[in-house]
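Could you join me in thinking about how sequence relates to backbone shape in a protein? Would you write everything just below, so we can both look at the same thing?
***
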Amino acid sequence: MKDKILLALLTFLLKSVAIWPYRILYIISDLVYPILYYIIRYRRKVVHSNLVNSFPEKSEKEIRSIEKKFYRHFCDYVMETVKLFHISDEQMKKRMHFTNSELIEELRSDGRPFFIYLGHQGNWEYVTSISLWIHPSLKGCQIYHPLSNKIMDKVMYRLRSRFNTLGIPQKNTLRAILSMMKEGKQPLLGLISDQRPQRYPEPEWMTFLNQDTPIITGGETLGRRLDAHFIYGSIKCVRRGYYEITLSKIEPSKEEDFPYSKQYMRMLEADIRNQPHMWLWSHKRWSFKRSDYKKD
């Protein structure tokens, strides 16, 4: 009962904020930024270290500039995500514009599922609005890791289901997709696979942003088993609060282990270099080294 009351209160508070227009939300974001950056100093060391190691060619002044822009964007991201509680479909289509959703239309006739790879770039929460751009025979869904905080997990699930997108816990992915296909539905699955993989089994490695990096390959393994189309969603911030996503086929440039996963990471790296402050630098992406995995 306590959790239900807390969930209801938190939802009420968030919805109360979400009804405010974007211009007010961005004023709040501007006020929160210096508190988060200068006073709370939220993960400042992690962000700075990630940036320095990713861009060794940049000066300290350039690194600090990207760092501050990242924190400003991060505050915007939070307010924009809260806005999902109160936003119309028409407004959402203006805020997140898919430049070539016709690619999905061209490929869907074969009935194969779509695996759309994304990064923590721009406002990735807005990508669930893809359901507004695709044929109704396609079912938008996303893999997610349930949060340890049950209340926040339910809040985020509601936000991410705003556009009738189905959330699938990672451990249930194959079963859920096969069930949908058996019912005649064509899954369009979103995967954000730029985080640090689990330590077991030992992951695949590649160079990403100038660093030896373990990568997630489970999506590719599952996708190849299901004969899925592999698509990359390139997210670009056009101006504050407005994003553009370009869909393109992932076509590996060379023969190697897990070619689709590695080509996705290369495509994401190009986007990060183009708009570096738009990526989630506060994540402890490189906290494990090869030696850490080999010890166990």
Strands lie at 96-98, 114-118, 138-144, 166-169, 186-192, 204-208, 211-215, 229-239, 242-249. The two ends are 42 Å apart (CA to CA). The chain has a mean pLDDT of 93. The first helix runs from residue 2 to 18.
